[in-house]
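ENCODED BACKBONE
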Amino acid sequence: MIDAEPSRRLTGRPRPHPEPLRLRAGPVTALLDGADLRHVRIGGVELVQRVYVAVRDAPWNTIPALIEDWQHEIGDDRFRVSFRARHRHEAIRFDWQGLIEGTPDGLLHYTMDGVCQGVFQYSKIGFNVHHALEGAVGRPYVAMTEDGPLHGVLPQAIDPQRIVDGALSGMFAPYREIALEVTDGLEAVVALEGDLLELQDHRNWTDANFKSYGTPLALGFPFDSVDGQLIRQVLTISHRGAVPADKPPRDPIISVVAAAGGPLPALGLGMPGHGWPLSEREAALLREAHPAHLRVDLALGDDAWRAALERAVADAVMLGTGLELALSVNESQADALADLAGRLGGLGVPVMRVLIYLAAEGFSAMLGLTPASLLRLVRQHLEPVTGPVVFAGGTNQNFSDINRDRPSDPALTGVCFSISPTVHAADDASLMENMAGGGEVVRMARSFSGDRAICVSPLTLATRFGPYPDGPASPGDLPAAVDVRQPSLLGACWTVGALKALSEAGAASVTLYETTGWRGIVEADAGNAMPARFPSQPGDAFPIYHVLADVGEWSEGGRIVPAGSDDPLRVVALVVETADDARHALIANVSPSPLRVIVEGLPDGPARLRELDSSSAESAATDPVAFRSTSSPVAISGGRLTLELGPYAVARVDAAAEG
């Protein structure tokens, strides 16, 4: 349980998130987290990861619900929970009565009885079910469609989101029931009354799950409501087959392998959205994070690109790094490219790589890969002055755009896409579940990209262009592209897990966040525009800063060492071997509860330990240089180290090479 006092340091919020309610239906257990069901399990096996009702407006923003009138009847082997939900945004007015029941025979029923109040447009109203990757990838299924049963196996490779006759489509025909063999001999059965379900490989957006969702995409969207229109759906979760024995609880174990793998990605930062130049103090602090590059976005159709380039050059000089050019351009802008080439020739700052996007306005669900002809045009103008750097094509949006339009032309020497864990959900649990998603998309991109560099740029907590899973910002709110977890310990833990996944999968470069400000790793000297809502003080070093500064120390010659976790929703580890054969680890408790973790596979002997947690977060923010100079001695014996970690704590362990 998180106390309210340190809540801002832990999660960025003034109050802790309520603990989920534990439910039991005979042999089946579940957590009730708000109105969501999570981790529906039997015999230690997860049947379903998450169940929730989503209301999405015409642009696909998720409109949160106000939940009230809770009623609970909780027994030893059954439960009944009811509530009322109201969704309000602009013209959207949708109310529903929720009823969740669990019976002693292990059946779960979730009923939504809703009514549209007035006329409005919406893209989705109804149930969504997440199937965790562990019980889905490579597993057989039977879907009951209108044309009869459909048998198949969910793919190892990420299945593209298809466009059929101009409309988005699911993986296969809509169904009223799906039985997924989550482990040998045991099926999880999900059935829906009141609508049809469709399946989507959520890994396309770095969500670490497959999703069954109501209302097939092929029907098109948005829909027009009718005043008084009733929408009723009943979702049932059951199981068939042999139930494994329950697994007794134990401390999680991190297992570090013997052999180091590939090099760490080149880690860089983005230019800040606030537009202020770096101060000497900010630059000195950021240099300690050893950024490999600085991303600058240049929209060549807007004359402001020249001033943006000048600001980026000035900041890059102060940081002692090169530029990652992110160009939004089209084939009619050859004159602007010639102008850019002329300016680059006299910069005195190296260009590390060039990311090329077809100029577009706002978010689109149907974008594809940068055209090869545009790549050739950009290379023709810029390569004579940049030299043979990576010229990457792809998307400024999600991996889904290029998974259905894969690179083949040799004009592309790299593939680029952005990552955010909050494309579909913004709650803390979903954020942590999606840490592994970056590794999934990098491995997939490498599978079809040959030897092209995989460039992840940028990685952000909040989505940048929408749609927004917590709804668009209302007057007086933080901008929707700003996440209060940016300056939190939770944000640092997620970054450890995301970097681990991306590094172990073989990303060539990763651009994370921004330099300063509320989307950065250090708060600007001037502070932020809404201090009552965004929990930072002027000049703070965010916990994320310390994660990147730690990894930056190991970047010269550092090689990633795979480190497995037997409970990755509680603890993850990023391990690096440096040129002197020493091993360094960042071990993150990615849960809101304290835990003891056992680390196996580090070299025996004396080591140093530093913990970034709720007790040290304030000093780490206000005096980061002093914090980074502190550590305590520990001893590793038999390759084993036991750590006690507080909620969302990050431990740094530096172990010398054996002998």
